[in-house]
Amino acid sequence: MDTEKEQHPPRIRQRRLAFGVWSAQDLLDQIHRSYPGPVILIMLQFPTPFASTTHNNTTSTSCDDVNARNSQLPVDQESGFMVTSSLLETARILLQKKRQALAPCSGGILLQSNCEDVAVTMRQMAEQVGFSCMTTPQSKKEDTNVTSLALPQRTRNWIVVGGQRAIGPGWSAEPLLAKHGRTETEVACK
User: Fold this and answer.
1) pTM of this prediction exceeds 0.70
2) Is residue 28 part of a domain?
3) CA gap 34, 28 in Å, rounded
């Protein structure tokens, strides 16, 4: 057996569009190894959220209770969640690669989630590997009504246990992509 083929996905042929069945990490690794041009934008949009560790306004000490969580979700941000420090580090390297010749700034990463705790976690992870947050035209303002029915139960539980809010500078109140560029998750959440 060829161990090289087992360890690395096939090379990406240079085209305007390609579909691949790889993990996010394998895809970015492959782009890093084989794509000669600059990468301007990486979008990590609506990854499957890790299981909420808050249930009925209490913090769970164990996510092993299948009845208390969706068993199909990654257990937590350390076990099975798509966005990892390694993935973000690879993204940072890709976004800086070969950009110096084209522009003084490196590319950007767009992180989106419809789960506030997941969004906060992704931002914290991105900042830990060297990303900084851009200013947004309209920062998201705090919703002081924690019991608001407009907030998902997961978010209300997150707020009650003191989770950091996705509000203020760097949190956009408006979509950053053009309307025709929205994902089906964004459309469904409106």
Assistant:
1) yes
2) no
3) 10
